[in-house]
């Protein structure tokens, strides 16, 4: 059998062992907690850096898109201006052609009128000459 003194001593040793084990576990827990906190802070820093980098990339991409859109608008305006110039030139050419044709038609009308007056006058003279000869 076990004596009371041995039992107390074994109990005391168990208590000491449990206390030591408890302090080691607490120490390990604190160490793990500190390591986790440090790792968490490091990861938070990396996440913040990545967020900042992403913001910069988005800003840079947006600026590039804005620039491309601005350049495309400029090209479209330039092209539209060129089309308007061509339309004006074509319109002016058409107007010149129309005025030339009008002038030509007026001159033809005048020539026809001259020939008509000449023909009517000649015919009238012939008719009068014929009437004079007959009478």
Structural class: mainly alpha
Q: Give the low-pLDDT segments.
A: none
Number of DSSP strand runs: 0
Instruction: Report mean pLDDT, rounded to a whole number.
Output: 93
Terminus-to-terminus distance: 189 Å
In short:
It contains one helix and no strands. The protein has 135 residues and is mainly α.
List the helices and strands and how they pair.
Elements: H1 4-134
Describe this structure in words.
With 135 residues, the protein is mainly α. It contains one helix and no strands. The longest helix is centred in the middle third of the chain and has 131 residues. The protein is rod-shaped, with a radius of gyration of 57 Å. The N and C termini lie far apart (189 Å).
Based on the model shown, name its key terms:
135 residues; mainly alpha
